[in-house]
Amino acid sequence: MQADVTQVRSGDVIVLTGRAESAVAQNDSMWNDDLRPCTLAEHSWPGAKFAALWIGMCLCLPTYSLASGMIALGMNWWESVVTVFVGSAIVLGAILLVSHAGTKYGIPYPVFARLWFGTRGAHIPALARAVIAAGWFGINSWFGGQALDAILVRIVPVWPTLGAHVAIAFAIFWAINVAIAMRGPQAIGRLAQIAAPTLALGAVALLVWAAKSAGGFGPMLATPAKIHGPAFWAAFYPSVVGVISFWATMALNIPDYTRYARSQRGQTIGQTLAMPLTMAAFSFVGIAVTSATVLLFGTALWNPVDLILKFPTAVVIIAGIIVILSSVTINVGANVMAPARAFENLWPRRITFAIGALITGLLSVAMQPWYVLATFATYIFTWLGTYGAMLGAFDGIAISDYWLVRKRRLDLAELYRPAGMYSYAKGVNMRAVIALLIGWGVALLGLALPALRFLWSGGWFFSLIGGLLAYWMLMRGERSVIGEERFDAITRDERPVQEPAPTLLPTEARP
């Protein structure tokens, strides 16, 4: 019996037919307006919008601190820039592989996760991503709160007398972030387009100040490396993994954004040109300015808020506003979408995107960002290293499922049916759970056995490889994998209708 056509292919994207959408939309336990696949009209983001999104997200305080902190580890300026670029380029590969699914099928991350973990099991990767995003939400809110506190200390005389003035500033900034995030994904996209040029100008101004104050780029960048040979590689390796882990979250939930892309080519070029180059360029700013602080103040100020406090009041206010804008942009751009969608996916009938954003904000406070940012070692090795090892296995399973197991062929309607082909056993794909544990186990061997410490230091990479290979092997013979013939049977190609050329009558043909 011939299969019913449930999806339509138009260029690079596939959408549900009207009939299929009406059928699956009746089940509100799997479907709401935020979780449904995009319509053809909603695939509207050009490559430039993805470039602006990444520029806005990369020009943030954690990027600055990540890069300039490498100076504190003993690297020189160009070693630090290369480290950041290498890590960014590696994780970009994973981001682009997962981006393809979002663009082609127009689905958000929690729905994409149903494909590999099952309709109920999808809560596992979705909530894991949500917890880490909430941690980042808290980190950026803490940066922004410190900047707000710095401004208020200078312009409100009684502010420093308040015993908990830093905590109050953090609470105010946190509330601003939550309020903006609750406005939804489209507001997030608009904010990124506004913030990107402002933050770029602020970065250039900071670099010019540093060069002028330190007597030019020569003296500023002349600080030699303090680590060489084995000591350098001992710092380089986990630092690269730290940069990878920095964006490992986006390697999972990038479909939340690429689902709106017009084409695969547009989103690929936009992300490729913007992400690694912006990371490297802003890293140079952070590294150069931090090197200048060593010359000017005798110590490396890798936290930009500490640097702001060295300036006159007028500069503190302007720089503080830029820091606040940066923190808001990265928070609502990278740290709200995934957790809000994850919480929404738990109970689509009751939890909206706005409620999910509020839950994210509350969870971020429980993650204690002030502790994570207490020292650079805690930030890059404990925070980034640990969650990178955890997320790597999820990244590997996602890539393995879409590219190796299913070869990019999905039945879109089945993702919204509780008892459909992607429900596996009672809604959970135990093969994915086993692959996840194997991926984690590979990284954890580095903690258990000192001789294999490199497995934990490179936790994201080895966890990814372990999860990818285990899932690929375990999914052999899986019944939910559809072949090319079945895919073609349920998919209709939609081509522009060409109007027939008018037939000229003899009288119409005369000049």
How do you describe this structure in short?
This protein has 511 residues and is an all-alpha fold. Helices cover 68% and strands 2% of the residues.
Can you give a write-up of this model?
The protein is an all-alpha fold. The protein has a single domain, classed as Hydantoin permease, CATH 1.10.4160.10. The protein has 24 helices and three strands. It has helices spanning 18-24, 47-58, 61-73, 77-105, 109-117, 123-155, 165-181, 185-213, 217-220, 230-246, 248-253, 255-258, 264-297, 304-308, 313-334, 337-346, 353-366, 369-372, 376-405, 430-448, 453-457, 459-474, 484-490, 506-509; strands spanning 7-10, 13-16, 491-493. Mean pLDDT is 84; it is low at 496-511.
CATH superfamily: Hydantoin permease
Number of helical runs?
24
Number of domains: 1
| Main β-sheet, spatial strand arrangement | 2-1-3
Percent of residues in beta strands?
A: under 5%
Which runs of at least 5 residues are low in confidence (pLDDT < 50)? Answer: 496-511
CATH architecture: Orthogonal Bundle
Q: Remind me, CATH topology?
A: Hydantoin permease
SSE arrangement, N to C: EEHHHHHHHHHHHHHHHHHHHHHHHEH
Termini separation: 57 Å
Shape: globular
The total beta strand count reads: 3
Provide the structure class: mainly alpha
Largest sheet: 3 strands, mixed
What's the helical proportion of residues? Answer: 55-70%
Instruction: Evaluate the radius of gyration.
Output: 25 Å
Which CATH top level class fits? Mainly Alpha
Round the mean pLDDT to the nearest integer and report it: 84
